[in-house]
């Protein structure tokens, strides 16, 4: 009898479950403060409006591999996925993400500007809907740098003026560019130089000068922790992480905005969703990427909204009550010397340069 | 009584031969037993063996080139890759024909990603060319050779076609060659340039460090297991909880705790500086290197060593030691000649567990290993989740599996696998 009851239960659950899906959406993101900002700015208002329950899955770090596995298994369980632009390009290349038509699938700006113009150059892939502009930049300990605070990214390579450990990400992207810039290569020539084996050697040779002083990080939380512990004098990480170290935890840390690298984070919709789920996902995207919603997210985290029309609407932090504009990587004062992650270049050279970089690291 | 005296086969009550009837009963019983374990068997097969085999198969699979560019691959057969001359018009025409189909199915960019592992620039070449070839008509727009070279001058580069031809077979050894720092070229297997060789080094490092970790687990675990086995039950149980407690804590938490302990501004260094044993400006570097990996992993894997040792030691009668001593053995002789040999099965079981777990670890080395303390599994993880080069990841995984099997075989020959006990 017990057995039949259990079977009956299993059968009913199996029958009931698919019916519930229409009322639920699984949205994949990075977790932590970032997912919280999305929940406050997008998920909660959307649920209130549409009655859809949103399930958060903090799997963005492995999203590309997981989506590929789901796709091969023919069972995609995610509805909307938050990824960085480089991953979006790869997902698009692999046919794992749906192509987006900005004119019909995204909301126009309040003044009638089309979504394509409002996002402008930030639509770096056919499948990608940009959400925020973030930057990878340096933070330094104000109490460990002596009397002259660093103003240039090349302070990272100057161990005489700024002795102590520094942290860099354990991958070639960004580090190679900074090394070349500080080795005297003009900003506009960086990728031409980096495309040649000599240029790659040059960058590695420059990094070699500080190799013994570097702690290599692989998780975004590493540098903030190392800074807070006084383990390093300066280190690279995402600007939002530094914001929370400086403003929320009140650590003696300051931002070095020089040569910050802009990167994009945004949504993709997985390929191969059923029509019903696709419709639902597109409805969410239409809502969550409009001008007001993107500006709302900046109340919770210091990343710049990807729409030009959202910038003027950025206000104060919802809990700390401080003005968010000066903390945005896109703020004119911060953005005096920047460059944009070169997606095309790294899509081609990533495998090659990463091989060399890892071999160099292991030496 | 007549049955026993007759010459015919023994019959069961229903008249069938007893042997047959018995066999049937046994078969039924076996079937029933099989049915009982069938769910487990099917589960293991479906969720474990099939995925592993299919993952390992990826290390040689290379269907993508010939399936995306079937006509081109056929035409390239007659082209001599060593001639130094570009292929003729039929190859270009076949290529455009293939690409138009592939672009429609959005498969050309996947091929670009695949070939980019072999030749830098293929990814964008296929993506960009795709946009332009989309507008071509394979029937009307011939000839294509000059048009394609106009689209991108790389189509006028012999190397591009050599790469496509070299990597066109359905079954390739290319991933395995890459996994041992070599590469597939039209002239056969060649070594990678020196500045890209890393994987063999990582394999060797993984093996050596796993052995060191296993060794330190034995050294640290043996006394603990001995104490646990020789204390009264009540005290032993309390101490056992101390062994198991870290076992129940999240791996990430334990690894991060080591970071706090070992870093230069960390607990141990602060303490040593306070004691005056270490100068403030020459604090010990104990993390983000091999030391960090060995310390953290030894701690994390220690319970896997202690538990089998403990359960084996519990079965060793204390009377044996007393007997040895009563016959004049010193404490050391009694331990070394009597107790230790009896405890070897526990060491064997613990060592196998720890070594095999260590060889596949990647989270801990990634967090505390810095550059010199990372394992081959870190590269496997990178190729699975970041570069999406699953073929190479599968080849690396297969090699690792084979290495472990060889070591297991060697262990069986030297120590004997019957000599391993979990309790």
Topology, element by element:
The complex is a heterodimer of chains A (363) and B (423).
Chain A (H helix, E strand, L loop, with lengths): L1 H20 L2 E5 L3 H19 L2 E5 L5 H11 L6 E5 H9 L8 H4 L9 H5 L9 E13 L24 E4 L5 H8 L7 H5 L2 H12 L5 E4 L4 H7 L5 E5 H10 L4 E16 L6 H14 L2 H7 L6 E2 L32 E3 L2 H20 L1
Parallel strand pairs in A: 1-2, 1-3, 5-6, 5-7, 8-10
Antiparallel strand pairs in A: 3-8, 4-7, 4-8, 4-9
Helix pairs in contact in A: 2-13, 3-4, 7-9
Chain B lengths: L1 H4 L12 H40 L5 H6 L1 H7 L12 H16 L3 H9 L5 H12 L11 H7 L6 H9 L7 H6 L2 E4 L2 E4 L7 H32 L2 H16 L2 H12 L4 H9 L14 H25 L3 H9 L4 H29 L3 H6 L7 H10 L4 H25 L9
Antiparallel strand pairs in B: 1-2
Helix pairs in contact in B: 4-5, 6-7, 11-12, 11-15, 11-17, 12-15, 13-15, 15-17, 16-17, 19-20
Percent of residues of chain B in helical segments?
55-70%
Q: What is the CATH C level class of the largest domain in chain B, in words?
A: Mainly Alpha
**How would you describe the oligomerization state of the chains in this entry?**
heterodimer
Number of strands of chain B: 2
Q: How many domains of chain B, as an integer?
A: 2
The radius of gyration computed from the alpha-carbon positions of chain A, rounded to a whole number of angstroms, is 22 Å
Q: N- to C-terminal separation of chain A?
A: 66 Å
Structural class of chain A: alpha/beta
| Largest sheet, spatial ordering of strands of chain B | 1-2
- How far apart are the termini of chain B? 51 Å
Rg from alpha-carbon coordinates of chain B: 32 Å
DSSP strand (E) fraction of chain A?
A: 15-25%
CATH superfamily label of the largest domain in chain A: Periplasmic binding protein-like II
